[in-house]
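Journal club side-thread
Mid-discussion, someone asked how the predicted structure for our own chain would compare to the paper's figures. Pasting it here so we can look after the session.
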Amino acid sequence: MSDKPISPLRQRMIDDMTARRFKEKVQKDYVRHVRNFAAFLGRSPDTATSDDLRRYQLHMAQQQISAGSINAAIAALRFFFTVTLERPDLVRPLRVVNEPRKAPVVLSREEVARLLEAAPGVKYKAALSVAYGAGLRVSEVANLKVSDIDRERMTLRVEQGKGQRDRTVMLSPRLLELLREWWHAARPPVWLFPGQNPINPVTARQLNRAVHAAKTLAGITKRVSPHTLRHSFATHLLEQGVDIRVIQVLLGHAKLETTALYARVAVNTIRDVKSPLESLGLKPTANARCLREPAAHSVVSQLKSQTSGPRHSPKSAS
């Protein structure tokens, strides 16, 4: 992970993560979270107590750190104390924070078309078209290989996506044309979208910059990232009437409830739902004109006169 000498304790944690086949990014994040905890503690993290962990979570909450960041820190600390130190009793005070589920930002079909046409060059137009046309995550787009394209079956193979799961997604004829156009222009040998050094794939940061450049050129004011194209892919499929379980498989979601989040932003689907009010057979009021302000005002006056009459004291009532 680094050429700098590291402590035996950190090396042991890295070995524990490597044995469990954690990805390098996850390992770096876990080490960073434990390092932040040690900085808060002011001493080696293996000397911490359960009260220290409780105080650290309180400190993060007081610093207005997001729920996602707090939960990521908790996951790292739980691993460190439970696996590396074999002290699961220490992490009992740590509590996962509920994260607000916000509706994802979704582009209309017209906005997606403008964004793709404004992409900076044929390479990024093809890459962003994969993100939208197949619903891939930005890391999955970056790690595609030329050999992942199956022209006979019209599919794309996604190797080791999120959760280290392989899956197969659709390859539309139009997307195949865009990929063929890009391949004839650059002839990439291994990675479908090589980085600045052809030995390595394009980075997520490069794809993110391309999206922001295209967004500006297309005049789109929404907050857009490469993941927005994935959100738009799922939402548009749902609006087309595609079964949500099929969309779950295409997206590689482990839980159906994650995919169901797109139902909140599928405008066409929401609009086409028939309200139960329609089945009641209510008819418009025949004499609607009699409910104008003068008539309504007289009704209100009558009600007031009924409730504001002379009150009787308990003595007179008896």
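Post-session note: DSSP finds 15 helices and three strands in the chain.
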